[in-house]
Amino acid sequence: MINKNYLKKSILFILLLFVSCDKEVSVSEPQTYETGKAKIFISTTPAKATIYVDDKNFGLTTPDTVKWLSEGEHKFTLKLEPFLDFTFNAIVKNESVTIENYNYYTDYRNFGSIKFSSKPDSCTIYFNDSLLSFKTPYTITNLIPATYKVKYSYPEHRSDSTNIFVYAGKQSLVHMNLADTTVWVTYNKDNSFIPDNTINDIMFDDNNKMWIATWHSGIVTNRTGAWENLLKENSNLPGNIVHRLKKDKLNNIWAATYFGLAKITKNNIIQFTTLNSKIPDNYVSDLDFDDLQNIWVGTQKGVSKFDGFESWTTYKTSSSSIPADFITAVEIDLNNNLWIGTNNFNTITFDGLSNWTSYQSDTSPIGDSVNDLLFDINNVLWIGLTTDLKSGKYGGVYVLENNSMKEIDLGLSNKYIKKFYYDDANTMWIGTRGGLVEAKSMDNFKLYTSSNSKLPINDILCIAKDNAGNMWFGTNGRGLIKYKIWKDN
Known about the structure:
The chain is mainly beta. It has three domains: 38-105, Sandwich (Immunoglobulin-like), CATH 2.60.40; 111-177, Carboxypeptidase-like, regulatory domain (Immunoglobulin-like, Sandwich), CATH 2.60.40; 184-488, Methylamine Dehydrogenase, Chain H (7 Propeller). It has two helices and 42 strands. The chain starts with a helix and ends with a helix.
C-alpha cells in the first residue's frame, strides 16, 4: 500500500517542478511601451530606419509616430544600413506631437570617397558609365554609401572594370593594373569571347575569319562577323572535343573531333561517324587533303581516304601492311605523298599502292610517338615527337634528310613537341611544352618562354597567322595569345 505522506510529497514536487520550468522559459520578458500621452513623429530620407527610444528597439521604422511617451526628454537613435547611426534628444509634451525629419543624404558624416589609382598612371576613368574629366591618380569625395561602377582605359591596354562599395565616412580604393596590349594580347574565358582556356587548334579561312578548336567547348568562329560558339548542343557538330581544323579548296572547314569528322559549310554541318559512314573510328586525330581533294583521315583504328561524299578506303593493320593503327598526324607532301605519324610506331609514308616505309629517330626497339608533321617550302619534313620518360623517349624536333631522321637542337628544357606552323615568311614556328620556337632556319631560331616574353605559359598547343601579320598561339589552360610580331621587330 502506497504511503499517503509519500504521495503528497511527490505531487508537491511535481507542481514545484512545473512552476520552476515555467519561470525559466519566461525569464526574457518582452519590452513594454510606456503609458504616457506624449508623441513624436519621425521621418527619414531614405525611409525604413529603425527607431530606438532610450536605447530600446520597439520594432518601429520611419516614417512613424511614437505615441506612448512620458512627458520630458527622451533619446532617439535612427539606424539604417549602410549609413552611420543618427542620435538626437527631444523634449516631448503631453497632448502634443513633436516632429523630427532627418536626411541621411545631407549629413556630411555619411559621405565617403574613392581613391583611383592604376598602372600605368593617367588612365581614363569612367564612373557609373560617365566619363570623368580627371585621370588616375585621383580622389572623388562627397559620395553617399552605395556601390559604384568604375572602368579604366588606356591606349594599347586592355580596359578593365570593377564595382566598389563606398562606406559612410570612409575612403575606398580602386587600383587596377591594365594589361599592355601593345605587342602581346591574352584572351581567356574571363576577358573575352572564348569559352575554353585550352585551345587545340587555330586557323584562318580564305576570308581571314578565325576558327578556334577547343578542348571541351566546341568551335569558336567569327565567320559572320560576330563570334559564335558551335557546339554539339546547338549544331550538328559530333562532339565538343575538337582536335584539328583544316580548310579545303572551297573554303569548307573540316573538324577532327573526339566523336567523329565534321564538314562545316556556309549553311550546314555534316558529320561522319561510325553510325552513318564507313569511317573506322570516331576518334579523329588529324586530316589533310591530297591534290584530288580526297580527305585523308587519321583515327586510332587506321587511316582512311575519303572522297568527301561516300567512298572510304581504310588502311589498318588487319587488312593492309600499314605498321600501326593509332594515327596521330596526317600530312601530304608537295609530291602528293601521304605521311602519317603514329603512337609509338614511328613516322610512316605510303606510296599510294601497297608499300609503307617507316622512319625512326634511333635504333631503340620502342618506336617514336609522333605529335605533328609538316613540310617546309623545300619539301623537307619536320617531325615533332612526344616525351615518354618511361620508355626512354625524350621527344624533340627532327627533320628527314636522305631517308634519315636528324634532330635539331633547339635548347628546349622540355622537348615535348605539340605543333608546327610554317608561315609566309618561310619561318617554322614550333609549339612545345617548353615554350615557343621561331625558326628562320634549322640553325637560326629564337625561343619564347614565360620568362623572357609575355607568354602566360610555356605549353603551346597550336599556332596560326592572320592576314594582318599577327601570330596567334593556343595554350594549354591559359587561353589564346595574339602576338603583334610586326611591332616587335
